[in-house]
């Protein structure tokens, strides 16, 4: 099935050829995946439009739509081990992360939004016109393109697909060509769950397929998670076509501020958890650490000791903490930035190089002596590379906030302190979509997720995702005749 597309309820051959998907731990080809052509994308958009306008999907009762989402969640649970192993083989993440974060998280999102289906409401409003009733309706946007990243393909698909279906939309799913296999398997489960044909369509492919979706006149909304550079390309394509609505969750360079009064052991443990999850291939990963100069050496020593003790290897081995980077190309990117850090004068305290042998493995790396102007302090690395910067506790908090905000990104941040006043001043001043105090960055389905500045537009999860996938219609009824 992986060499086929899913369009209008049928598995069909792609006309654009195939692309190999590779196990990053073994460098073996797992499968050849279909490459959707322009004609394939047009067919999928047409199927989604038809399902939106003249199928059972449009007349389905809310309880019936909710039941389909609950059914899909149950199927994810029933195939949890299969999905987890598939995610680990295709993406590389440790099997425990695949089970708990990716698979369980996906099922929970479908259940959460199944509960929303019967609670999507409009309003009546006291307008200043005589003999006039005014009310609003929440209606689906229409045909949605869901364009996925390669770091958490199954979980992030659930973030997008669950609210899109809960609100009555139809969709085209476009996974990354690097990690498409769990998206394909989920679409097979969607078929098994009994969703009407054309509601969910699958168009696998590379950046050319994504470009076709960005500029397509038949797409009403595109939701994308990935790099800021690609987000800019999508925005230009949207502006030049039909000005489709966009939801963009883009890059990050999350700061972690460790105050002088912080519990250093807790801060080290939490920052390791928040920085090297999925080998640092997380947009909200903590990557630059601002440490009170009095505690700097203690923090660096304990952080380096902690990451040096992490076992790196195949994600299918339960004893490993870190898996491979997702591809050889990405490992070269990480290695290049590590070399730049060394050249610019930062000190490699531990790690710092690719691991020889089969697979795209890289040592978890800690840099000390980093300064704000260094490349590793402001460029997104997207790997297990941690940079420690010092600050003087005599400095004003405003100065520290300015340093934390001195980046184009604004997705997430964390603060480690025992002082409530310090935590609140910093949390209020940092320009980021999510600020965590004394904890790793752990999104939840009931809380908004998205970024400031170049980290994106819009919010996912919670009721904010309902907003992202609906239009509000204003209806005026004059009854004074």
Can you walk through the features of this model?
The protein is of the alpha/beta class and 481 residues long. The protein folds into two domains: 4-250 and 451-477, Aldehyde Dehydrogenase, Chain A, domain 1; 254-437, Aldehyde Dehydrogenase, Chain A, domain 2 (3-Layer(aba) Sandwich). Helix content is 40%, strand content 20%. It has helices at residues 38-54, 56-59, 62-78, 80-91, 95-116, 153-166, 181-193, 207-215, 228-240, 264-275, 296-308, 328-343, 375-378, 397-404, 420-429, 462-468, and strands at 4-7, 10-13, 18-22, 29-34, 132-140, 143-147, 170-174, 200-202, 221-225, 245-249, 254-258, 286-292, 347-350, 365-368, 385-391, 412-416, 434-437, 456-457, 470-478. Strand 14, helix 13 (375-378) and strand 15 form a beta-alpha-beta unit. Helix 10 (264-275) crosses helix 11 and helix 14 packs across helix 15 (420-429). The longest helix is centred in the first third of the chain and has 22 residues, at 95-116. The chain is globular. The termini are far apart. The mean pLDDT is 96.
């Amino acid at each position: 099935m992986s060499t086929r597309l899913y369009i209008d309820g049928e598995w069909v051959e792609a006309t654009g050829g195939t692309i190999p998907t590779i196990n990053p731990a073994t460098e073996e080809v797992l499968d050849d995946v279909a490459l959707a052509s322009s004609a394939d994308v047009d067919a999928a958009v047409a199927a989604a439009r038809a399902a939106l306008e003249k199928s059972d999907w449009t007349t389905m009762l809310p309880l019936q739509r909710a039941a389909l989402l609950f059914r899909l969640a149950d199927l994810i649970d029933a195939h949890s081990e299969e999905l987890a192993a598939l995610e680990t083989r295709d993406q590389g993440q440790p099997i425990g992360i695949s089970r708990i974060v990716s698979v369980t998280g996906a099922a929970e999102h479908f259940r959460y939004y199944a509960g929303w289906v019967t609670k999507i409401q409009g309003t009546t409003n006291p307008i200043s016109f005589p003999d006039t009733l005014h009310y609003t309706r929440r209606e689906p946007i229409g045909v949605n393109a869901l364009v996925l990243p390669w770091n958490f393909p199954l979980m992030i698909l659930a973030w997008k697909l669950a609210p899109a279906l809960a609100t009555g939309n139809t969709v085209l799913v476009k996974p990354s060509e690097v990690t498409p296999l769990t998206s394909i398997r989920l679409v097979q489960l969607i078929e098994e769950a009994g969703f009407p044909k054309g509601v969910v369509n699958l168009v696998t492919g590379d950046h050319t397929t994504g470009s076709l979706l960005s500029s397509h006149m038949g797409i009403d909304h595109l939701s994308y998670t990935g790099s800021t550079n690609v987000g800019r390309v999508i925005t230009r394509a949207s502006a030049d076509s039909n000005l489709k609505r966009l939801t963009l969750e883009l890059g990050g360079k999350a700061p972690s501020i460790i105050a002088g009064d912080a519990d250093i052991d807790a801060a080290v443990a939490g920052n390791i958890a928040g920085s090297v999850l999925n080998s640092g291939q997380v947009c909200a990963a903590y990557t630059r650490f601002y440490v009170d100069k009095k505690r700097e050496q203690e923090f660096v020593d304990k952080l380096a000791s902690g990451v040096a003790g992490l076992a790196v290897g195949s994600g299918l081995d339960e004893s490993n903490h870190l898996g491979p980077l997702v591809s050889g190309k990405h490992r070269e990117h990480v290695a290049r930035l590590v070399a730049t850090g060394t050249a610019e004068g930062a000190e490699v305290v531990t790690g710092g190089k690719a691991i020889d042998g089969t697979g795209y493995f890289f040592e978890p790396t800690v840099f000390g002596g980093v300064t704000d102007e260094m490349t590793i302090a402001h460029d997104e690395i997207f790997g297990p590379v941690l940079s420690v910067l010092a600050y003087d506790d005599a400095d004003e908090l405003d100065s520290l906030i300015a340093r934390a905000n001195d980046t184009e990104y604004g997705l997430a941040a964390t603060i480690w302190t025992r002082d409530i006043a310090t935590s609140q001043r910093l949390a209020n001043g940092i320009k980021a979509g999510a600020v965590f105090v004394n904890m790793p960055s752990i999104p939840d389905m009931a809380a908004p997720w998205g970024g400031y500045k170049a980290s994106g537009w819009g919010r996912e999860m919670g009721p904010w995702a309902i907003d992202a996938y609906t239009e509000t219609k204003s209806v005026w009824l004059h009854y004074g005749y």
